[in-house]
Write a structure and sequence with these properties.
There is one protein chain. 38% of the residues lie in helices and 20% in strands. By secondary structure, the protein is an alpha/beta fold. The protein has a 7-stranded mixed β-sheet, sandwiched between helices. α3 runs antiparallel to α5 and α10 packs across α11. It is globular and about 70 Å long. The protein binds nicotinamide-adenine-dinucleotide (NAD). The site of nicotinamide-adenine-dinucleotide (NAD) has 32 residues, from α8 and α9. The site of nicotinamide-adenine-dinucleotide has 32 residues, from α8 and α9.
């Protein structure tokens, strides 16, 4: 990818942005005719106008998805046929790589380099992987007495509401769409109001690939309007939600107040990264935590934002992490060399700066960073920031900041490290760094998190589940386990004469 920044900028002025919803195969304005501004965090400019979907638009989308499900235009196709359509959908995503990457970068500020190399290919791979899986999964026959046959089968649920965040807009959408569509459901997707552009294009690409009308509808809009209407809808069978723990709580309430729809929550994190002095390559551990923390501007649910380091190696560790910071200085997201881009909006900028202020006020001190930069561009940029002298009770250690801010906490013993790492309301991911195989296994087992990494933090694949313990959520995205969320288990007893 060698296109210079000015070329990406020129391409962005040529883009035709269509902010209308996609319902029943058509581009449609909101029923009220209202729109909201799509503001690019790169420079604070308004780049488009998005349909402000509300209850009426959600009703239309759900009705269309219900019709599509009930008449079997998708659900009754043979799995091999659904597979072919979804493989074509994945191919179309890859063919539109430059356009989708540019939309993602303009919309939420991540570097174009990563939109191209991570977001687009990961979304395509996810759709293709579930497509390929769907005609290879068999149902079960239970080992019952010879007088009866008990079939245990999986059926699509019906209409799935997907509500997703802005940090990886395409990937988060694909994690819901892949298993839900492959299993034969219809989906109504509500993208974040901060990043609706790629979701709308995905719906068009799916139609071009041959997905029947109504099987995948997209209604952009605000959470308390379109999101709430979708989650309260009596004809939605399940909600696949990714977002904050605050809104995840509301999702459970909406289900209780409506039709007890299944709710699968994939929520926030405050992941622990635990470094023991017996790990034989402290430099690799320090460089890994910097890369994982500052990737995507620190706007990753699994960012290792609580770093527990044994007191005997903490000084050296912090020095190496601080030395890495210049490599992550924010730059123009449209420049192919940029490693860290803009925070998603002005609100997120204020939130992150507020936490940096809170850390200082509570007595932690900044080893590197701590400033807003590039304000003259009109965009929202914050330096990679490392706090030391943090204790686990401070707000910067307890609350999810969702920005490039790391807290380093010292420990003395293994028991203390485990207790501190587990002392969090979250449990999304964790990692342990030790060259002692017994300690590595012991600590990995003791850490309360959905994923535990040993001596690395980067491995990830569509084949493995992703999700959290505690208030990080309940469902699991990715892997074959995700089919559990979007299928009902049915038992059929047959009497044998
Ligand atoms: P958010 O909870 O504010 O919003 C997420 C989605 O919910 C958006 O589409 C939003 O419009 C919608 N929403 C907001 N209020 C709503 C309401 N009252 N009713 C219905 N819908 C509503 O989260 P965010 O700021 O977009 O995303 C950041 C959060 O997402 C972080 O906490 C991050 O950790 C989490 N996240 C988790 C994972 C994971 O897999 N566990 C992955 C990515 C992000």
């Amino acid at each position: 990818m060698n296109t210079p920044a000015h070329d990406w900028r020129a391409r962005s002025t040529d883009l035709k942005l269509d902010g209308r919803a996609v319902i029943a195969g058509q581009r449609v304005a909101a029923v009220t005719g209202e729109t909201f501004n799509c503001v690019s965090p790169i420079d604070g400019r308004t780049i488009g106008h998005i349909a402000r979907g509300g209850e009426a638009d959600i009703n239309a989308a759900v009705a269309s998805s219900r019709r599509a499900f009930d008449d079997g235009r998708w659900a009754h196709q043979a799995p091999a046929s659904r597979k072919r359509t979804l493989v074509r959908f994945a191919e179309k995503i890859l063919a539109a790589r430059d356009e989708l990457a540019l939309l993602e970068t303009l919309d939420m500020g991540k570097p174009i380099k990563y939109s191209l190399s991570v977001d687009v290919p990961s979304a395509a791979r996810c759709i293709a992987w579930y497509a390929e899986a769907v005609d290879k999964i068999y149902d079960e026959i239970a080992p019952t007495a010879h007088t009866a046959l008990a079939l245990i089968t999986r059926e699509p649920m019906g209409v799935i509401g997907a509500v997703v965040p802005w940090n990886y807009p395409m990937i988060m959408a694909a994690w819901k769409l892949g298993p839900a569509l492959a299993a034969g459901n219809s989906v109504v997707l509500k993208p974040s109001e901060k990043s609706p552009l790629t979701a709308l294009r995905l719906a068009e690409l799916a139609l071009e690939a041959g997905l029947p009308e109504g099987v995948f509808n997209v209604v952009p809009g605000f959470g308390h309007e379109a999101g709430e209407a979708l989650a309260l809808h009596m004809d939605v069978d399940a909600i696949g939600f990714t977002g904050s723990t605050r809104v995840g709580r509301k999702m459970l309430e909406y289900a209780g107040r409506s039709n007890l729809k299944r709710v699968y929550n994939e929520l926030g994190g405050k992941s622990a990264f635990v470094v023991f002095p017996d790990f034989d390559d402290i430099e690799r551990a320090a460089k890994t935590v910097a890369g994982s923390m500052f990737f995507n501007q620190g706007e990753s649910c699994n960012a290792p934002s609580r770093v527990f380091v044994h007191e005997s190696v903490a000084d050296e560790f912090v020095k190496i992490v601080a030395g890495e910071a210049p490599g992550y200085q924010p730059g123009d997201p449209l420049n192919a060399a940029t490693e860290m881009g803009a925070l998603v909006d002005d609100t997120q900028l204020r939130t992150v700066l507020g936490y940096i202020e809170a850390g200082r006020a509570e007595g932690a001190h900044i080893a590197v960073g701590g400033q807003q930069v590039r304000a003259e561009t009109g965009g929202y940029f914050v330096e990679p920031t490392v706090f030391e002298g943090v204790n686990n009770g401070m707000r910067i250690a307890r609350e999810e900041i969702f920005g490039p801010v790391m807290s380093v906490i010292r420990f003395k013993t293994e028991e203390e490290a485990i207790a501190l790492a587990n002392d969090s309301s979250y449990g999304l991911q964790a990692s342990v760094w030790s060259s002692n195989i017994n300690r590595a296994h012991r600590v990995a087992r003791a850490l309360r998190a959905g994923t535990v990494h040993v001596n690395q933090y980067d491995e990830d694949d569509i084949t493995v589940p992703f999700g959290g313990f505690k208030q990080s959520g309940n469902g699991r995205d990715k892997s074959l386990h995700a089919f559990d969320k979007y299928t009902e288990l049915k038992t059929t007893w047959i009497r044998l004469e």
